[in-house]
Design a protein that fits this description.
TIM Barrel, 324 residues, 40% helix, alpha/beta, homodimer, 6-stranded parallel beta sheet, 2 domains, globular, two-stranded parallel ribbon
Chain lengths: 324, 324
Amino acid sequence: MSDLPQRVEIHEEGPREGFQIEPPGFSIADRAALVEALADCGLRQIQVASFVNPKRVPQMADAAELFAAIRKRPDVRYTALWLNEQGFERARATAAVDLAGTLYFYASDAFSRLNNGCGAAQHAQEQRRWVARYRDANLPIQSAYVMTAFGCNIEGEVSEETLATSLRFIASLEQGEGFRLPKLYLADTVGLGHPLAVRRRVDLARSILPHARVGLHLHDTRGLGMANALAALEQGVDLFDASIAALGGCPFCGNAHGGAAGNICTEDLAFLCEQMGVATGLDLQRLVDAARLAERIIGRRLEGKLMHSGIPQARGQRAARAVT
Amino acid sequence: MSDLPQRVEIHEEGPREGFQIEPPGFSIADRAALVEALADCGLRQIQVASFVNPKRVPQMADAAELFAAIRKRPDVRYTALWLNEQGFERARATAAVDLAGTLYFYASDAFSRLNNGCGAAQHAQEQRRWVARYRDANLPIQSAYVMTAFGCNIEGEVSEETLATSLRFIASLEQGEGFRLPKLYLADTVGLGHPLAVRRRVDLARSILPHARVGLHLHDTRGLGMANALAALEQGVDLFDASIAALGGCPFCGNAHGGAAGNICTEDLAFLCEQMGVATGLDLQRLVDAARLAERIIGRRLEGKLMHSGIPQARGQRAARAVT
C-alpha cells in the first residue's frame, strides 16, 4: 500500500452522465442547482453537459442554456463533451464552457465501429484532425481517453497488446504533432476491468506514455468499480472520474435486464480515499447533501451508498441493531 | 497480489439477511425456491432463517416451516441463526437445520449494550455458557463472530486494542474450555471498515488466534464492501459471507435517509474472484438467475450489479454505446 497517493483529484461526471440517460425534461434550474452544489463540495472540474446531436440526445439540447444559468465559481472548471465539429462549435460559442483539447481512442475495434461507424485505427487517425483543430483554436491537448481499455460487450476482454497498440499510436501522434499529453485516461467503458487488469494496464500505459499522468474512468457496471479504484490507488493513480450518487449508467453497456450501472460513485470514492488517509479536498457531508439533491431531482432511489447510510460520526447517532 | 488465495468459500446470507428486513408475508414457496436456486449455484452453506422472537421479527416466525419446505441437497449446509436458549431449542427441534456451534462477541461496548442489554465484556462472559450448552448438545464450536470489529455508529471506529481485547478473550475461552476455534469472522456490521483497517485487523486476528481460519462478514453500508473484500483477498482471506443480489440491509446501521446497504453481493463478489483467477466453485450465470429470482420475489430493483449488467461474453452481445 506504500504507493497510495497522498492526494487524489476527482473529476465530476454526474451532470452529463446522469441526465443524458434520463428522459428529457429536467429543468435547467434543478440541473444548475446540482452543478452549483457540486462546486461547493470542493470539486474543481465538473462536466456539465454534452454538445451532441439534439435529435439523438434531446436531454442535452439545452446545454448552452444550462451553462449560462450556472452561478460560476472562479476556481472550478465547467467542462463539456463534444464528438464532432458541430458540437465543438456550439461549445465554443457558449461563453461559460471551459474548453479543453480532449482526444478519444478505442481499444475495441468492434465497439468503435458501432459507436463511430469506423474501426479503431481509422478513428484514431481522425484524432489527428482534432489535434490540428485544437491547435487552430489555441487549445492545448489536455487529455486523451482510451475507451474500452479493458474490453467491450462485443469483443469481450481486449488484450493488453491491443491496448498497447492504441497507446503507441498516441505516443506516435505526440511525436508527429509535437505535443506532450498531460493526462491519459483508461476508460473501463462497460465494466470489464478487474484489479489485476487495472494494475497491469496502468503499468502498460505508464511504460508507453511515461510523461503522462494516468487517470481512470471507471464504471461500476459489474460491481467491481470500487475494488478497481483501490487497485489503481495502490498503483499511485491520483486522477479519477466519478459521478455523484452514482448517477448515470448505460442501457447498452450490459446485456439487458435493467441496464448497467454508471461511473463509480463520487462520494463513496471520496470516502474510500479519506478513510485511507488519501486527501481529496472534498467536503464529504456536502457531497452526501449533493447526492441527496440529485436523488430528489431524479425522483427515484439512486445507487450511491454513503448518501443513504451517512458519514459515520463518533457519537450521537442512532444505534445499529443488526445481529451480524 | 501474491497472497491471493487459489480458492474462496462464500457462505450465502441472503435468505435470512434479506427477508428479515422486508415486511412479513413473503410465501414459504418463494423463499424455498430461492434457497433451492442458491444451492444449485454451487453454494455449500446457506443461512436460511433465524429462530428469534416472532413478536420482534415476525418475518422469521415461520422459520421451521420454511426449513421443512426446502428440497435439500446432501452437499449443502442449511444453517440458522439463534440468539437465546428458546431460539436454539426451536432450531434443534427443526430436523432440517444444520446446527453449528457459533459464538458472538462485540468489539463495541455501546453497540453490545443496545443490542444485548449488556456490555461487551459481560456478553463475552455469557458466551462461556454457550460453549457448555453446545457441548451438552454434542455440537462442536465451529465459528465465532466479532461484531462491530471495525466500529459502530455509536462509538465510531473501535480501536485495534479494543478488538484485540475481544480476540484475547476468545483465546482465553479456548484454553479454559478446551476447544480450538476453526473459524473466526470479523464482522463489519455497520460498514466502517476500509482496506487498510481490513489488512491490519486480519493480521491482528491471525496473531492472536493463529490456528483459526479468519473470515470476513462485510456490509456495503458505505460503498467500500468490494474494496474491503479485495483487501482481504490480498491478505489471503478465503472465507466470506455474502448475500445474493445484495439482499439485506439495515434500517439502523446508517444514520437515516433510506437505511443502509446489506452484505456484499454474492454474485458480484464471485465475479471479482473469478476475474482474478480465484476459484469460487460457483456458477456465475446461475447466481445471476438466482439474483433475478430474488428481485422478482422482493418486487423492487435490488442493488446487485452483475445481475443487471450480465456476465460479459466474448461475442454476440448488444453493443455498448456510452461515449466514455
